Amino acid sequence: MINKKLSKTLGPIFGIMTFMLASGITYTSAFADDTIAAMAPATTTTTSASASATYTDNTATPIKDYSIAINKSSEENGIKVTVNSALATKHNLKVTLKIEGITDPKAIEHNNSLFEVSYGDKDYGFNSIPSRQYADDKTMFLTLEKSNYQGEYPESGNLRVDVVLSNYKVNIGMDVPVDFTNSINKVFTKDITSTLPEINYTLKQLDSDSMGTTISYTRPKHKEHNIDENNVFLDSQILLKVDSNFYKLDSRGDSIGDDGTIIGHYSSKLPAYDTVKNGKDISVIPILYKVSMDHHDIISNSSNKNTTTDSVNNLTYEKEFSSSRGLKGTIYNVERNDNSVKVYCKGKSELESLIIASNISLNYNHVKRQKDATIYNYNRFISFYKDPKDSLGYIVKFDNVDKDKAATLNISSMIKGISTYKMGDEIKLSN
């Protein structure tokens, strides 16, 4: 049982972590910089034939898009909702909506609006927080995503979309016939037979599809949090290596199986099906670590940051960072090109360098009166690889970055509370 003192410590920590997962925010920003980004003309424009508003996107995604075009609309009380496109795999669903006629973006905040999608008879999935992009003051593009680990989506059927905007007295529901045969059959699967004895996890299977990669695991039922006698929390992260590139897979929650066994998942948007299927050297690397339950070790002290503002690359970041637990790292170079940012980083050992490289995120700096979220694509398009010119260095690559926005690089404050790291045995999955 968790003692009373530890419960007081764990409560706020797990509460913060739950909020970050629920809101799609994985990292806290290391800096508060309200720099105004310069806006350049868009290079790519998608225009609806029935509206003058356009959605501008001057970035390029590293994932091949298997979405199907739908373009079905419904209008009520001056608000027009269009189902632009949709994509489904066996366990994931993504739908893009276009909402026109908005006069006040605050009128469709979370507490007075509802956006729901469902598909098939075995849709037991949960919705993530939708991502938003504003084309103008009256037009919003909304991306809804859903994970369904307990069921499977069918290849074809009716997709149900419901939009409720209470401030506009809008209640729109649409049934859309869809055929996802192509995307659902794009799946690469590998069985894994390996355990992480320190935390009693058994890795089961790797599944890679057109929306990313997932590794499933099981752990015994009624298992308490992994906390030792020194109030230190034991946890893990998974790195997937495909040829020379590394990808971090984050824990996405768990469920209870029929026998009471806990079933959990690590997942990431990268790499997706085509990358994994064509990979010649695939392996899984577990990273185990201990995190002190002391708030002072987990939450970094902002007054001790050594910040650098790189005007050439329009980036702000912490060039050197350390903690009382022994962490010592540096960002020794940064490159920013049209749609990508490369961050060169390292620690004082190979393992520490891996930990640092897998815990760097990016966010766009807040601009006054800007409606768009400052989170860079919820940090979905990140990979990293060895720096061939530095024995301990890694290069973290952020794809699909808006080249015209000022941004900040963040070092996860959680890793500054990590007291020990341990790399598990590399698990080879190649044919």
DSSP helix count? 5
Stretches where pLDDT is under 50 for at least 5 consecutive residues are 1-61, 295-303
User: How many DSSP E strands?
Assistant: 28
Q: How many distinct domains?
A: 3
Could you state the oligomeric state of the chains shown?
A: single chain
Helix proportion of residues, in percent?
under 10%
Rounded mean pLDDT score: 78
Note the gap between the termini. 44 Å
- In this structure, how is the largest beta sheet organized? 9 strands, antiparallel
Keywords:
431 residues; mainly beta; Immunoglobulin-like; 3 domains; nine-stranded antiparallel β-sheet; eight-stranded mixed β-sheet; 28 strands; 9% helix; DUF4179 domain-containing protein; signal
Question: Any overview of this molecule?
Answer:
The structure is a single chain. This protein has 431 residues and is mainly beta. It contains five helices and 28 strands. The protein has helices at 4-22, 181-184, 273-277, 295-298, 350-357; strands spanning 45-47, 54-56, 68-76, 79-88, 92-100, 113-119, 126-127, 131-136, 139-147, 156-165, 170-179, 187-196, 201-209, 212-219, 232-242, 245-256, 262-268, 282-292, 306-310, 315-322, 328-336, 340-346, 360-364, 382-386, 394-399, 407-411, 418-423, 427-428. The longest helix is centred in the N-terminal third of the chain and has 19 residues, at 4-22. It is globular, with a radius of gyration of 22 Å. Residues 1-32 form the signal peptide.
